[in-house]
Amino acid sequence: MTMDLFQNQPVARFTEEVGEGARVLRGLACDSDQALLNAITRVARQAPFRHMQTPSGHTMSAAMTCCGQLGWVTDARGYRYQQEDPLSGELWPAIPEPMLGLAQEAAAEAGYPDFRPDACLINRYQPGAKMGLHQDKDEQDFGQPIVSVSLGLPQVFQFGGARRNERPVNIPLGHGDVVVWGGPSRLFYHGVLRLKEGEHPLTGRCRYNLTFRRAR
Ligand code: MD3
Ligand code: FE
User: Fold this and answer.
1) Which parts of the sequence belong to the Fe2OG dioxygenase domain (predicted)?
2) What region does 41 belong to: left with phi over 0, alpha with psi -120 to 50, or beta?
């Protein structure tokens, strides 16, 4: 529940629990969408989007960049968080305020008032790009949630279970949708299907996904 700015009344926001501990806040990022996209553009001027290599030598179809004290990277040596952007050797840019504010607001609404992300991974999908089923387990404390924010074209999210062999359910994620992944869902397998062709008024032919994490 959040308080209405003018009437100081609680606002009933539409939240669904999609899995054990996962809360969807539909459209929470809509009011700040332009500020978020401007922030992504600023981050990407300093730390450009790039297609990283997986340890097995595949090129990821989503382009990525990061902001925060730590950034998530993958290359021939493996998956890890590190303080420097491998492209420049410089520190990652700080998490811009509109992004940090939204992540903390969403986490608080889902029951994590003390969430202080130190890493934000920004994924950019163009038509045909996808992310296969995986777990996020490069972080130190799985008691900390992950907050995800979707902007632009819709994409079908696949939400599995604690084991890879559990059949995933499909959840469409649209512009402005925010999800807080806490509790057992924090370690559930997940991915996104190929992005379908389309055009979004704010982002054009792409979808951005921001994931806010406490890595250390
Ligand atoms: C459930 N990103 O960056 S967002 C990722 O659309 C990632 O870019 C997808 O999976 C994307 O790691 C999915 C939703 C999401 C993100 C992190 C999770 C769901 C999650 C971590 C744990 C459980
Ligand atoms: Fe993930």
Assistant:
1) 116-216
2) alpha
8 pLDDT more than 70: no
Q: Output the residue whose Cα is nearest ligand 1's atom 22.
A: 186
Closest ligand to residue 186's CA: 1
CA distance 149 to 106: 10
What does the angle CA 177 – CA 167 – CA 148 come to, to the nearest 5 degrees?
Answer: 20
The 3-state DSSP composition of the chain as helix, strand, coil percent (nearest 5) reads 15, 35, 50
| 113 within a domain of the structure (yes/no) | yes
pLDDT digits (tens, 9 = 90+) for 113-147: 999 999 999 999 999 999 999 999 999 999 999 99
> Is the torsion defined by CA of 30, 31, 36, 38 positive or negative?
positive
Give the CATH number, domain containing residue 108.
2.60.120.590
Q: Name the residue range of residue 90's domain.
A: 22-49+60-164+200-216
